[in-house]
């Protein structure tokens, strides 16, 4: 394992710094693009339970770093109580935030200010994003798979994020225990919403 440099050795403010940090973390981007002054790197990684996660690291001068992940497909009108669930998770998980993109996909992100940006902070943000996906594996299954059945992991498959998760395991204490979920009555109401809307109900 390549040791990370101390935070004081980080050179903030350039895409080339992020290239170096990703290399120190052992992460090979799938693509690297520049647009409107920002640079973005796509990474294909796995958690321990949820696999094939396509994360994007975005560097914008003066803004900092964002680790961005499409967490779930678009939220349908019948799943409007999912917004309540996202707000609940935003309250429970202090270092990341959930939101919706213009296509109403659920997205998960972690932000790093320019002053705090270095290899260690980037690695921790990526590891935390993977760990949140694992933490909410069952709770988010109803958005990800028909019938809400979590996907099966191929026997013997090795996580592409395992080394990163192991490196930062001691700093992810907030992801212990069971995640917050909607009460049973809210889940029943959510499942019943499409039928009520078809019948003119609300």
Plain-language structure description:
The chain has 6 helices and 6 strands. By secondary structure, it is an alpha+beta fold. It has a single domain (7-198), classed as 2-Layer Sandwich (Yope Regulator, Chain: A). The protein has a 6-stranded antiparallel β-sheet. The radius of gyration is 18 Å and the shape is globular. The termini are far apart.
Instruction: Give the overall shape, derived from the CA principal axes.
Output: globular
What's the CATH architecture? 2-Layer Sandwich
Counting DSSP H or I runs of 4 or more residues, the number of helices is: 6
- Helix-and-strand structural type: alpha+beta
Roughly what percent helix? 25-40%
